[in-house]
Description:
Blueprint: E1 10-11, E2 25-28, E3 31-32, H1 40-49, E4 51-54, H2 60-74, E5 84-86, H3 99-103, E6 106-110, H4 117-123, H5 126-135, E7 141-151, E8 159-162, E9 177-182, E10 193-195, E11 207-209, E12 213-215, H6 217-220, E13 225-228, E14 235-239, E15 244-246, E16 255-264, H7 272-279
Parallel strand pairs: 1-5, 2-13, 3-4
Antiparallel strand pairs: 4-14, 5-6, 6-7, 7-16, 8-15, 9-14, 9-16, 10-13, 10-15, 11-12
Helix pairs in contact: 2-4
Amino acid sequence: MSTTPTPEVLFDVVADMHAPELYEPKATGEGVEHLDDLGPEQIAFYREHGYIVIRSAFTPTEVADATAGLVDLIMGKRPDFKHVYFEGKAKAILPTLGPEQRQDAVRKIGAFIEFDARLKAISHHPALLRALRSLLGSAEPEMFQDMALIKPPLLGREKPWHQDKAYFEYPLGTPVVGVWIALDEATIANGCMQILPGRHKEGPILHFQRRDWQICDNVILGTKSVAVPLKPGGLLFFDGMLPHGTPHNSSPKRRRALQFHYLPAGVKKVPPEERLKHFGGEGKNVTC
């Protein structure tokens, strides 16, 4: 008698709670209302500060469609999709959770756009691609990473301060634009993005494997950040060198978001050693 194999359940890391002082915003992010409002003034702001907010990038219908696509993947509507990662702290309780409850134990999903047309549509939205061409200096944007970042109520862990280029095997000078799209309202309480404007121009900051692959806490402590709360459909563009992080979700509300990364089409990868030469802190006579 044949049996159907049980799908492998993937878990994220279990990390200690962060120091509250790592996330002390002094202001909120600046931007414009719609994607088509992105003009020369906003492009100059992005170059100077490393980010720009689009408060209403997508319509309620587009947000609802993308959210439905995400939920379908989480709920197993595509059995061939394998990239759902649960919170490490949910490992003990996961077998006790019903299908709907399992939604609020998911940490992230990745590599999904070829599994749901609604999610692919938002990542390749014509207005989004137009904006990306402007931010990339007229280059044709190529998406090279797609993720959904989910902070379950009360359970969602911190993503420590980091620069995204510290994760990517591309030449250091390659322009990389991150796109962070709120599906739920993102607030300071439930773990919205926090950024350090202007510090993308400082170059690589050493990263260490601590609670995650991250900038050392002592580099950030005492620094006042800028929070980026967003309504559903709001969007944050940010430079791949901009330091950013998100604290633990201390609220009873979901915080689901999509994140895509784009670079100029045709850029070739480099060996991991090249990335670590710039961003890796271990073995460089520095402590964390």
